[in-house]
Design a protein that fits this description.
Length: about 270
């Protein structure tokens, strides 16, 4: 009996040592890897300078950008009409009526931060807590792109020329009714933000929604095919105080009926002097 007990101890020790053996990285089996498709995803975050938890949400968004790269576009909207965005003291005024239109469309949520991904319903709700952003973006990334966006922006001082081309991925992917939305965002804006219980006057605001170039729900474009892409060209003048080299143009292609995002693309504005 004693011999059997000692044998059991030895066997357990050997099993423990074996389980702690370091396996070379190229020999490891990694379970649960996600097979992403080609789709680009839009994350709209409703945020405000008075929102003490919004900096944490911004960190989540940045982590997702690090993971998904160019396949994710983040836009931070400070909607006019929300108590979280009304400026006071030295706070900058990021409010826009256009952001208010989207905020109202999705039910005027009182709780910030809150996100909407691809204008898509997840389990019956458009509005997602930041703890659900990673899984929801991942779910959308597993889809394949049905259309391609080509976006070219040229700048002369604050005057932009925006050229957009839309083509279908294949004849099977053609959607009858599509609309094209164009936005301006700006990064690296230093301004007041409540962060936890403390005001931070040196907070860096990124992905700030500045303006809608098109109407809020876009412009109708001819249904694109593989051989016959659609194009939309327009101009826009950045407002005084916006730093052109920190600005981006965001193009969003949506299904006109459902408003669901089919694809999204962002390109930076590179200011040129005349």
């Amino acid at each position: 009996m004693k011999h059997n007990f000692l044998s059991l101890i030895v066997a357990c020790c050997l099993l423990f040592v074996a389980s702690c053996t370091v396996i070379p990285e190229d020999e490891r089996i990694i379970h649960g890897e996600i097979d992403y498709g080609t789709k680009s995803v839009l994350l709209v975050e409703f945020t405000g300078w008075k929102c003490v938890n919004c900096p944490d949400a911004a960190k989540v968004a940045h982590q997702l950008l690090d993971l998904h790269g160019d396949n994710l576009v983040v836009v931070g909207m400070h909607p006019d009409g929300s108590t979280w965005t009304v400026p006071s003291g030295t706070a900058l005024d990021f409010r826009t009526e256009a952001a208010g239109v989207y905020w109202t469309h999705f039910g005027s949520p009182v709780s910030f931060p809150i996100g909407v991904i691809d204008f898509h319903e997840f389990n019956g709700s458009y509005l997602l807590d930041r703890n659900l952003w990673a899984s929801s973006v991942s779910e959308r990334r597993q889809l394949n792109q049905v259309a391609q966006l080509a976006l070219q922006v040229t700048a002369a001082n604050n005057d932009l020329t925006i050229q957009t081309t839309v083509s279908a991925e294949s004849d099977a992917d053609i959607i009858d009714n599509v609309s094209l939305i164009l936005w301006i965002t700006e990064d690296n804006i230093v301004g007041l933000q409540l962060e936890g219980s403390e005001p931070n006057p040196e907070y860096v605001h990124n992905h700030v929604f500045r303006a809608a170039v098109t109407p809020e729900w876009g412009v109708d474009i001819t249904v694109p095919t593989v051989e016959n892409p659609s194009s939309y060209d327009t101009t826009f003048t950045l407002q005084d105080g916006w730093v052109a080299n920190n600005c981006n143009v965001v193009a969003v292609l949506i299904d006109k009926q459902t408003k669901e995002v089919l694809t999204v693309k962002q390109v930076p504005v590179v200011a040129a002097t005349e």
